[in-house]
Amino acid sequence: MVEELAYRILPVWLQAAFGTLTLAAMVLVLNQQFNLHLFGFTLVENRYLFLLAVATLPLVFLAYPWHPRAARSPLWLGIDIVLCLATMAALFWFSWKAEAILGEGWEFSAPIMAKILGAVLWVLILEALRRTGGTAIFIIVTIVSLYPVIAGKLPSPLNGIDQPLSDTLAYHIVSAESAFGIPMRAFGEIVIGFIVFGVALNHTGGGKFFNDVAFALVGRWRGGAAQVGVISSALQGSISGSVISNVISSGVVTIPAMKRTGFRADYAGGVEAVASTGAVLMPPVMGSTAFVMASFLGISYSEIALAAAVPALLFYFGLAMQIDAYAARLGLRGMAKEELPSLKQTLKDGWLYIFVFAVLVYLMINEQQEAVAPFIATGLLLAINQILPKNRLSWKSFVDLVLATGRALAELVAILAGVGFIIGAFSVTGLAGTLANDLVYLAGDRPIVLLLMGAITSFIFGMGMTVTACYIFLAIVLAPPLIKAGLDPLAVHLFIMYWGMISFITPPVALATFAAAPLARTSPFKIGFQAVRLGAVIYIVPFFFALNPALILKGEPTEVVSVIVTAFIGVGLIAASIQGWLIGAGRLDGSPLRLLARIMLAIGGFALAAPGGNLIPVSNTTLAVIGASLALGAFLLLKLGKQETLAA
């Protein structure tokens, strides 16, 4: 999430209460997803979401103190217990009145009690959001959630329908368009299962397995220690969905290994920061944001994962090629064989994770069972894990697993409920529809202008926000005008997801680099400079697939194949020019001729990778010919320069 939150160490009796609420949430979700009828009937959707919030949202006040310094204060623990109970009571009242909310239209004419408790819950949800999401998102959500109160007094394009304060706060709670709208539905229907699976995987040794596989596969390569960071981060982060926790859990092993084999500290930190950031974009799981995206677009998760595959691979290909070029230029070698685990033994010991992961992917892709797949995979994982002796959970480790699950659920439910206020504010005022038209009008008939506006806005809102929260906000504000301008809906949503993540590696915020700095023992700003270079692909690829959906596998098969092939070649050439080394030609610095070749490679790589038509007014074929000609010319210049050096 935004940062590694300082959670409170609870006394045993509160751990029992915390664990009981967490397990109650699990029972509730399993009953709903598997249609178990444990309560004798199926819960209507709003009652289910209210009850799920009863079991998860109060956990925020127990797990996360109002300030890290208050974590050990008995006084603040007492106050937080009161807040926890107040949250439970208010939510339970709304769950009890669930059918009346639907049948009597409370979102437009709520009774007095609903308005009072709605105001109480609005305050409690915002405080929970502040504790888990940080001050920036708290301020944004608070201001936007109150927008309906003054909407009629604002100038166009922000002008909307006024609502009284009491009606606004009640609407935020009882409406299916606000706190308990799309984000909360995605949480209750799909996201929660993957959170549980990710926590269970880490507590049963999955993180170590992914690291060992990466070391065994590429540890001996040139720059192998850094390539290990790329692979292990991609594997772990795809499941966890948290950039910061991925940097810490993977970087604690990979960053020291990189430094030990000759990588500078800032470069090692940059590799880990970039690899961990890109992991959330990597299928098959892609963290939790992809499932929220599926809810927004009304399509299956597997369609999103398939579309995201090529851009994610381009990102990691560019990173891997830069690492290889850097290692070649400095003459860095791989790790010694005796330092590395045996691939055969690692796979033999970790067959459990491979099997469970295969089951998860099969259920999601082949059976289209995104909602139940992670629960089945988690059940298999825990059952087999308890049979095998190596990572068998003791009672203490099981309790730790439950508590970690509760903290993860509490953190995300607070953020999703809070961000839901933004949807509600735009919905009740009618701004959601009019804003799209106004932005399209401002941009004129130029989709690239809207994309640039979207990229800047995404970057700004990505500062200090979680990936999921930033995506939801931008999916409401920016996606509609971009789609209205004629861009592909799926490409648009992937675009804002990518640009919402860029702030994790771009100074001045660059949260991933701040997480990597203590592990690399160097300045986060030095790491940030390296991260921008290493993550260069993430800045340009979203424009490419937004303007030409062939990169997300949409279009004629021949065009899709040709665009993908030229994109990979182009990204490889861009990586070579950034790091100053080209395979087969050597260094790209040291003489004017080499500098010219380096510039030609950069331009040629961009021409090969970029789509024709919208971004550049020529065809894909013409761009490919121009790019290939520049790359060939650069290669010949380098060869000529090498011959002149030898002759001299």
Brief account:
It is found in: Cell inner membrane. By secondary structure, the protein is mostly helical.
Work out the helix count. Answer: 31
Estimated share of beta-strand residues: under 5%
Helical proportion, percent range: over 70%
Number of strands: 2
Q: Per the principal axes of the C-alpha atoms, what is the gross shape?
A: globular
Q: Could you give the distance between the termini?
A: 57 Å
Helical/strand content category: mainly alpha
Mean pLDDT: 86
Q: Tell me about the largest β-sheet.
A: 2 strands, antiparallel
Sequence of strands across the biggest β-sheet: 1-2
What is the rounded Rg? 26 Å
Unreliable segments of 5+ consecutive residues: none
Word description of this protein:
It is a single chain. This protein has helices at residues 12-33, 45-56, 59-63, 74-96, 98-103, 112-133, 135-145, 147-150, 165-174, 182-203, 206-218, 224-240, 243-260, 265-279, 289-297, 301-330, 343-349, 351-365, 373-387, 395-429, 431-443, 447-462, 467-477, 479-484, 489-501, 511-520, 524-534, 536-547, 557-579, 592-609, 620-647, and strands at 581-582, 586-587. By secondary structure, it is mostly helical. It has a domain at 555-648. Helix 2 packs antiparallel against helix 4 (74-96), helix 10 (182-203) runs parallel beside helix 19 (373-387) and helix 20 packs parallel to helix 23. The longest helix is centred in the middle third of the chain and has 35 residues, at 395-429. The relative contact order is 0.10.
